[in-house]
Design goal:
- The radius of gyration is 64 Å and the shape is rod-shaped.
- It is an alpha+beta fold.
- The strands form five sheets. Strands 6-5-9-8-7 form a five-stranded antiparallel sheet, sandwiched between helices. A five-stranded antiparallel sheet has the order 11-10-14-13-12, sandwiched between helices.
- Helices cover about 40% and strands about 30% of the residues.
- The longest helix is centred in the N-terminal third of the chain and has 43 residues.
- It starts with a strand and ends in an 8-residue tail after the last helix.
- The protein contains 19 helices and 24 strands.
Length: about 650
């Protein structure tokens, strides 16, 4: 192997061993006995290596010199091809850049060193209506002056030109037709060979839509802030991966703290403030939402106030960010103080419990009946509410009549067919007024029971129509009362018959005034008065004056004991006839509350006449018998006196 000091890259290898050594042990050389390796230079740059092999007799310096001119030509040809390839690549790149520049919606501006516009693309012309001929030579920032944000942006761009630095500004720009748009201008300095500054290239992007979105988001954020401030709601954001809670001031003040006093807040610190009885429930709801079982986290619980009492809060939130594996990263929500609401709700629950207890112990059912047709939901008229007492009335449970609880029974279907129309008509007339009904209802056992219903109808809530909207009422079983009433009516009818047909006089009078209220035919016949005539009189006007003292005495007895008589008085009939009567009576409180005296008047004139005739007969008989008996008694008295003078035997 031989090399030249003037050019160490020239190699002459004239035997197979030298060739094998030059190629190395890992490479199998070609089967040649000689090899010449010549470098190809262009200037000082090595372009290639040329190998010539297997010449008889080998190679020497003369052969090398012979090849040198040829290698120079080859070098020139290779360099030419390389330059052409680079030029073609530049042309292709320029075509691509030109195509992109003409088709892109963004505007491109190239300036001179002083910032004067040298070129703009079609995208910029389409964006603002200016063409290259109108803009060439003008400082590019001048076309952005006079609008919102332009002063600050112009200062930034001018300073960037002086400092040959990049810039990124946003400002409101004017189009050629006077309309405006928001633009983002990103500029970078251009450098030529030897890093010589040549000007700027700026990319102009229309961000009007983005800016509107930003303004809309800002407006929404402002509205949200107003809502949060107006509703006095606490807000929180939980970074689940770092377990850090970001809170607003209201969240802290709900439980009596300043925000700086409790920061930083973790989930453990938050859970420690929750009432022990609520902690498990809160954790369960939170975990269910984090797992994705529920769309929202929504919970009401108690938190410990700084002063030591418990505050009710309504906590709501949602996971809004998860990683690629579905694990939650961020969650946010709101916090409301609902202590006052919960106190009122608890009071209402107590009242409701008391009401339910009262309703459960009523002997009948309380109901609210929807008396309208809801066309939107296609619901028919039905029970809106009914108390458990309906089971006592019908034998069926309340839920069987409530559509909202799966009930399919209709109370109206249980009403006796003979009573249905009467019930419907009475209810239909009850517009903002009350009504009372008695009708029959079929019980679960198949028998009909008498019930009484007291209710009231109401119109639509808006009050603009007289359509019957609701019926509210109370229904209870009166079967037993109805039976008793029927019996009483039968007894009353009997008494009325006896009253009318009685052979003695019967009168009803007002206790306080002693005036007549009613009288049966026998008394009217006895006194020869019609009923209207008698009702104009009182007892004292019909009794002879010498009996008035007796009347006063018996009135006192009546007030004390509730009864009087029997005693005898003389009454004066219509035409002055004096009648001997026997009277007795009792004080009775009527069902309507009136204080009455019922008096029995018996004509004893014949009895008095018979007693008089008896007395006269006894007097006559007594006189007739008294004369002979007197003689006999006198003779017996003489005999007795003589007998007393006779001495006793043995005397």
């Amino acid at each position: 192997m031989q090399s030249f000091a003037s050019d160490p890259t020239v190699l002459i290898l004239n035997n197979a061993a030298a060739i094998a050594t030059w190629f190395g042990a890992d490479v199998v050389p070609p089967a040649q006995n000689s090899l010449l390796v010549l470098p190809v230079y262009w200037g000082k740059n090595l372009l290639a290596m040329v190998g010539v092999g297997d010449r008889k007799g080998g190679y020497d310096r003369e052969i090398v010199d012979f090849f040198q001119p040829l290698l120079g030509a080859v070098a020139q040809l290779v360099e030419t091809l390389r330059i052409r390839k680079i030029h073609q690549a530049h042309e292709r790149e320029l075509k691509r850049l030109t195509l992109v520049a003409s088709q892109t919606d963004s505007g491109l501006i190239i300036t001179e060193i002083d910032g004067a516009i040298d070129w703009v693309n079609d995208g910029f012309s389409r964006m603002n209506g200016y063409h290259l001929e109108q803009l060439r030579g003008k400082p590019f920032w001048e076309i952005f002056r006079g609008q919102e944000g332009s002063a600050i942006a112009t200062e930034q761009m001018s300073r960037a030109l002086l400092e040959c630095a990049s810039f990124n500004v946003e400002l409101k720009c004017s189009k050629h037709d006077g309309s405006t748009y928001w633009a983002r201008i990103v500029g970078n300095p251009l450098y030529g060979d030897a890093k010589v500054f040549q000007g700027f290239i700026a990319i102009v992007t229309d961000i009007s839509a983005e800016h509107r979105k930003t303004e809309l988001l800002a407006e929404r954020e402002r509205h949200l802030r107003m809502v949060i401030d107006g509703t006095r709601s606490g807000t929180w954001e939980w970074n689940i991966s770092t377990d850090v809670l970001i809170l607003n001031d209201r969240w802290a003040t709900i439980i009596g703290y300043d925000l700086k006093d409790i920061e930083p807040v973790s989930s453990q610190r938050w859970k420690a403030l929750i009432h022990p009885d609520d902690r498990q429930h809160v954790t369960l709801l939170l975990q269910k939402h984090i797992r994705g079982d529920t769309q929202f986290y929504d919970c009401k619980y108690r938190m410990l106030h700084k002063s030591g009492h418990w505050v009710w809060v309504h906590d709501r939130g949602q996971v809004f960010s998860r990683d690629e594996n579905g694990k939650p990263r961020l969650m946010s929500g709101t916090h409301f103080d609902i202590t006052d609401v919960m106190v009122v709700r608890r009071a209402l629950e107590v009242k409701q419990q008391q009401l339910n207890h009262m309703l459960a112990n009523l002997p009948g059912m309380v109901y609210r009946y929807e008396n309208y047709h809801n066309h939107k939901s296609n619901e028919t008229r039905s029970m809106y509410f009914v108390s458990p007492g309906i089971e006592h009335v019908t034998g069926y449970s309340a839920n069987e009549f409530l559509p909202g609880k799966g009930g399919k029974k209709s109370y109206e279907d249980l009403i006796h067919p003979d009573d249905v129309e009467r019930v419907k008509y009475t209810r239909a007339q009850a517009v903002n007024t009350g009504y009372q009904l008695e009708y029959r209802v079929r019980h679960l056992d198949g028998e009909y029971r008498w019930v009484e219903e007291i209710g009231r109808g109401s119109t639509e809530p808006d009050g603009e129509s007289d359509t019957l909207y609701f019926l509210d009422g109370f229904v209870w079983d009166i079967t037993e009362r109805k039976s008793i009433r029927t019996s009483l009516e039968a007894e009353r009818n009997k008494l009325a018959s006896l009253y009318q047909m009685a052979p003695i006089g019967i009168a009803s009078s007002d206790f306080a005034r002693s005036c007549f209220v009613d009288a049966n035919p026998e008394l009217l016949n006895l006194l020869d008065y019609s009923l209207p005539e008698l009702l104009q009189l009182d007892w004292r006007s019909l009794i002879l004056p010498n009996f008035h003292a007796d009347i006063e005495r018996h009135s006192t007895e009546l007030a004390r004991t509730g009864r009087f008589g029997p005693y005898e008085v003389q009454m004066v009939a219509k035409h002055g006839k004096v009648i001997d009567v026997g009277v007795s009576g009792a004080r009775v409180r009527e069902s309507n509350g009136e204080d009455r005296v019922w008096t029995i008047v018996q004509d004893i004139s014949q009895q008095k006449q018979l007693e008089k005739m008896k007395s006269e007969l006894i007097a006559v008989v007594s006189h007739e018998l008294r004369t002979p008996l007197t003689s006999i008694i006198g003779s017996l008295g003489l005999v007795r006196s003589q007998l007393e003078k006779i001495p006793a035997p043995g005397g």
